[in-house]
């Protein structure tokens, strides 16, 4: 009998012709995540198996808990796929567990096995009763659930199920760029995008001296939290000061936020082209602020052709906060350091801006030249390990 971690693919199992690509990407991601530990990982179309040292189990669980593409994983004990071996291994294992009631749950993946699942439930239960005293079956609320998977070469016995993150492995979709501010919503948007397999790099707009180095450090800390769910993240820092000051100097007060977002979108599209990213991701939530009404989104979106993905668009704030707490970004996001989107907010921003008015207002300054300057002078910080220190980057 050997002890393994058995990984179940969940949504990946619905794939057909490209299933192998999804499984291979998950294999690579798990292997990278477990770097430095003594493990042996094998895979097939139905399951993935990790051989490990007992002392590393808790560390392995903590790492694979942050790998997208895993629906469930179990600590399993393997044995030969025959009735005698299964009975004896189940009996041996339960003798080390304190319980009064149990239920047997057999799944027979190998249909050539001589006994069907329901009958095998009874066979195992009968063997337990013959070799123990005082135990009872409880099919509704057992103290112990004995799970047995019968496969062609080996059978697997396990008692506890651990839920994974689900979704698709990061890297099964092409790269996109996340507009990462210091707020609550955008890190959650990045997390949800990665859950659909999207490889993410980040773009942060800063306006020194109106925004601080503390605000930049905050954003890098948020990106580092997202790094827990992938291998590496680049953070592209855009100096937005001249554009933002030009907008406030030349444009109607109620339109400054709309025009600022239009400039950001133009820059994002240019960066997508530069870094071969296929979409823009952001944390916009419908109606949450003036720039996120449908009219504003339409007006801002009209500047570009690149797709914009808004993972939190239809969530309310409490739902977004729940996820932010879950991924440990909330406490960072509420630190009191303002970003470009929160400084100089007008008293009455336009909630139904006109595209024609925006075009006229934008003629008042040479934004194309300023955008070129932003792109030419961006600063990129490469994050590739959790323990990296960032003081020298600020």
Give a description of the structure.
- The chain has 394 residues and is an alpha/beta fold.
- The chain folds into two domains: 2-163, VC0802-like; 172-393, HUPs (Rossmann fold, 3-Layer(aba) Sandwich), CATH 3.40.50.
- 37% of the residues lie in helices and 23% in strands.
- The chain has 13 helices and 15 strands.
- Helix 7 runs antiparallel to helix 8 (256-275) and helix 8 packs across helix 9 (294-301).
- The two termini are 53 Å apart.
Topology:
Layout: E1 2-8, H1 19-33, E2 39-43, E3 47-52, H2 57-64, E4 72-80, H3 83-94, E5 101-108, H4 117-131, E6 136-137, E7 144-150, E8 154-158, E9 161-163, E10 168-179, H5 185-195, E11 196-206, H6 213-227, E12 233-239, H7 241-250, H8 256-275, E13 280-281, H9 294-301, E14 308-309, H10 317-326, H11 330-333, H12 355-362, H13 367-376, E15 379-383
Parallel strand pairs: 5-6, 5-7, 10-11, 10-13, 11-12, 13-14
Antiparallel strand pairs: 1-3, 1-4, 2-3, 4-8, 4-9, 7-8, 12-15
Brief characterization of the structure:
This protein is of the alpha/beta class and 394 residues long. It has helices at 19-33, 57-64, 83-94, 117-131, 185-195, 213-227, 241-250, 256-275, 294-301, 317-326, 330-333, 355-362, 367-376; strands at 2-8, 39-43, 47-52, 72-80, 101-108, 136-137, 144-150, 154-158, 161-163, 168-179, 196-206, 233-239, 280-281, 308-309, 379-383. It folds into two domains: 2-163, 2-Layer Sandwich (VC0802-like), CATH 3.30.2130; 172-393, HUPs (Rossmann fold, 3-Layer(aba) Sandwich), CATH 3.40.50.620.
What are the main properties of this structure?
394 residues; alpha/beta; VC0802-like; Rossmann fold; 2 domains; nine-stranded mixed beta sheet; six-stranded mixed beta sheet; 13 helices; elongated
């Amino acid at each position: 009998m050997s002890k393994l971690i058995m990984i179940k693919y969940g949504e990946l199992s619905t794939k057909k012709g490209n299933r192998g690509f999804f499984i291979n990407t998950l294999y690579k991601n798990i292997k990278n995540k477990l770097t430095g530990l003594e493990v042996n990982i094998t895979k097939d179309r139905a399951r993935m198996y990790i051989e490990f040292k007992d002392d590393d189990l808790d560390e392995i669980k903590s790492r694979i808990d942050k790998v997208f593409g895993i629906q469930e994983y179990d600590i399993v004990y393997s044995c030969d796929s025959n009735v005698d071996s299964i009975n004896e291994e189940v009996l041996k294992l339960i003798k080390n567990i304190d319980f009064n009631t149990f239920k047997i749950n057999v799944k027979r993946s190998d249909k050539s096995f001589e006994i069907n699942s329901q009958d095998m439930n009874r066979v195992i239960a009968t063997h337990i009763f013959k070799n123990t005293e005082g135990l009872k079956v409880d099919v509704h609320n057992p103290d112990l659930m004995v799970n047995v998977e019968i496969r062609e070469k080996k059978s697997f016995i396990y008692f506890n199920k651990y839920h994974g993150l689900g979704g698709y492995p990061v890297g099964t979709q092409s790269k996109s760029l996340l507009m990462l501010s210091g707020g609550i919503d955008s890190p959650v948007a990045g997390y949800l995008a990665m859950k659909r397999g999207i490889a993410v790099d980040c773009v942060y707009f800063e306006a020194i001296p109106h925004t601080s180095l503390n605000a930049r450090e905050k954003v890098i800390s948020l990106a580092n939290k997202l790094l827990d769910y992938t291998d590496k993240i680049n953070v592209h820092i855009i100096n937005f000061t001249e554009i933002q000051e030009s907008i406030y100097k030349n444009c109607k007060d109620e339109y400054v936020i709309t025009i600022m977002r239009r400039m950001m979108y133009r820059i994002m599209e240019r960066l997508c082209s530069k870094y071969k990213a296929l979409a823009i991701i952001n944390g916009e939530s419908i109606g949450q602020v003036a720039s996120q009404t449908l009219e504003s989104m339409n007006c801002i979106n009209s500047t570009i052709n690149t797709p914009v993905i808004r993972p939190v668009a239809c969530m309310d704030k409490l739902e977004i906060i729940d996820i932010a707490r879950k991924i440990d970004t909330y406490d960072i996001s509420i630190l009191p350091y303002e970003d470009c989107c929160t400084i100089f907010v007008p008293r009455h921003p336009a909630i139904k801006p006109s595209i024609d008015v925006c075009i006229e207002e934008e003629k008042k300054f040479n934004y194309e030249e300023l955008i070129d300057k932003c792109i030419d002078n961006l600063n990129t910080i490469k994050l590739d390990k959790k323990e990296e220190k960032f003081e020298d980057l600020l």
